[in-house]
């Protein structure tokens, strides 16, 4: 291929990408702003902006004339965040949550659908996920033709190529043929491990904003970790970087049970052993099954047994965090998942214990993104895909 023939096309593409990157980073700019930011000539900047407007990725704002102004007002340009939309899905064992967002990452619609009891058959789960995506689009007032990409988080390890890692025990719960289901609508579908998406979410809009080295531990029912190192999400050779297998070898831990599950199990065990304090009052006399919420509430109200359970959980979690700190050396570890809001009560003991195991331990924080932690990370993954391929994509604004 004659390199000289492709040079003008390559230069034009580079200029489009350069200007587009600036437009995405600010509310609006003038031509002079773009010249200063990119180093391009005025003629090139205006030509590129006009090209982006024709393509649908940019818009020209109305520039009001000020009193006493001579000549035309300066042209002002902005990124067209409504040139298309993305979907972020969190497909769990019991629930699927979906966010619809524009290309600025603004959430415009969402929904939550529970799977049938005991998870349902693969066909039922697939139908529920497709229905949830449809409901989120309806809530956003958009159609499938406006979607540019969908990303999905699952509670299984995923390779760097977006396939479920070999040997995953829960693979049948998530290998639902969704790529074809969504692909019929013309969307690329990205699949990623839920803890890894949680790490993307925390770095984008959570406690780890702009932090280049962090780990996020989903610690609700089952422990799983997503790790970002030097700004890069780690996968490993088979997608298992951050997987918490092998905890049965760790003294004082023993398995992958998360905070919510431990609180429930140990709270129920206390009731079965005859505990008659605040946990019993909250649960009632008819059952010995305690919920994690009741254990945390009882501890906050001064119940000594509940406080002892939280102390045990915190000391156990400190050992898990020590492993993550030793292996990945993050500056920040964020606890997320089903009980993240309550896990603040564990931080003093975790922080004190961690200092015994790790020199110069990382900062510990609790996620504030709640149940939308994983779907927020899925939105970020979908946006990353759109931004990387924007010049090959065709905008899909809503009708």
N-to-C order of helices and strands: HEHHEEEEEHEHHEHEEEHHHHEHEH
Largest sheet: 5 strands, mixed
User: How many DSSP helices?
Assistant: 13
Strand order of the largest sheet: 6-5-4-7-8
What oligomeric arrangement do these chains adopt? single chain
Residue windows where pLDDT falls under 50 for at least 5 positions:
1-5
| CATH architecture descriptor of the largest domain | 2-Layer Sandwich
**Helix/strand/pairing class, anyone?**
alpha/beta
End-to-end Cα distance: 41 Å
Q: Would you report the number of β strands?
A: 13
Task: Give an overview of the whole structure.
- The protein has 399 residues and is an alpha/beta fold.
- It has helices at 3-25, 31-38, 42-55, 122-140, 171-174, 178-183, 194-205, 259-272, 278-283, 292-300, 304-328, 347-357, 373-388, and strands at 29-30, 58-61, 76-79, 85-91, 95-102, 107-114, 147-154, 189-193, 214-218, 224-229, 232-233, 332-336, 363-366.
- The protein has a five-stranded mixed sheet.
- Helix 1 (3-25) packs across helix 3 (42-55).
- It is elongated and about 85 Å long.
Secondary structure: elements and pairs:
Elements: H1 3-25, E1 29-30, H2 31-38, H3 42-55, E2 58-61, E3 76-79, E4 85-91, E5 95-102, E6 107-114, H4 122-140, E7 147-154, H5 171-174, H6 178-183, E8 189-193, H7 194-205, E9 214-218, E10 224-229, E11 232-233, H8 259-272, H9 278-283, H10 292-300, H11 304-328, E12 332-336, H12 347-357, E13 363-366, H13 373-388
Parallel strand pairs: 4-7, 7-8, 9-12, 12-13
Antiparallel strand pairs: 1-3, 2-3, 4-5, 5-6, 9-10, 10-11
């Amino acid at each position: 291929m004659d390199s000289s023939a492709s040079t003008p096309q390559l230069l034009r593409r580079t200029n489009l990408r350069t200007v587009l990157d600036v437009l995405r980073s600010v509310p609006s700019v003038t031509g002079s702003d773009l010249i200063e930011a990119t180093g391009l000539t005025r003629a090139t900047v205006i030509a590129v902006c006009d090209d982006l407007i024709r393509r649908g990725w940019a818009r020209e704002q109305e520039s009001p004339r000020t009193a006493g102004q001579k000549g035309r007002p300066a042209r002002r340009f902005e990124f067209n965040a409504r040139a298309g939309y993305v979907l972020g899905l969190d497909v769990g064992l019991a629930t699927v949550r979906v966010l619809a967002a524009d290309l600025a990452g603004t959430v415009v619609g969402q929904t939550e659908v529970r799977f049938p009891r005991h998870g349902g058959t693969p066909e039922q789960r697939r139908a529920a996920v497709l229905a949830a995506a449809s409901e989120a689009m309806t809530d956003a007032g958009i159609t499938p033709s406006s979607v540019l990409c969908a990303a999905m988080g699952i509670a299984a390890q995923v390779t760097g190529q977006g396939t479920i890692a070999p040997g995953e025990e829960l693979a049948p719960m998530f290998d639902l043929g969704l790529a074809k289901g969504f692909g019929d609508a013309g969307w690329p579908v990205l699949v990623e491990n839920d803890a890894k998406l949680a790490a993307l979410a925390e770095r984008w809009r959570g406690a780890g904003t702009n932090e280049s080295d962090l780990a996020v531990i989903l610690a609700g029912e089952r422990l799983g970790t997503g790790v970002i190192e030097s700004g890069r999400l780690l996968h490993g050779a088979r997608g298992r970087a951050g997987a918490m297998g092998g905890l049965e070898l760790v003294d004082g831990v023993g398995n992958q049970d998360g905070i919510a599950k431990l609180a429930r199990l140990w709270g129920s065990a206390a009731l079965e052993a005859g505990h008659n304090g605040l946990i019993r009052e909250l649960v009632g006399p008819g059952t010995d099954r305690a919920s994690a919420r009741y254990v945390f509430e009882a501890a906050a109200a001064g119940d000594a047994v509940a406080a002892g359970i939280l102390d045990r959980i915190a000391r156990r979690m400190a050992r898990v965090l020590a492993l993550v700190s030793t292996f990945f050396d993050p500056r920040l570890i964020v606890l997320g998942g089903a009980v993240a809001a309550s896990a603040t009560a564990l931080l003093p003991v975790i922080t004190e214990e961690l200092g015994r195991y790790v020199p110069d331990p990382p900062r510990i924080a609790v996620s504030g993104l709640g149940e939308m932690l994983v779907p927020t990370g899925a939105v970020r993954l979908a946006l990353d895909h759109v931004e990387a391929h924007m010049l090959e994509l065709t905008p899909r604004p809503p009708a």
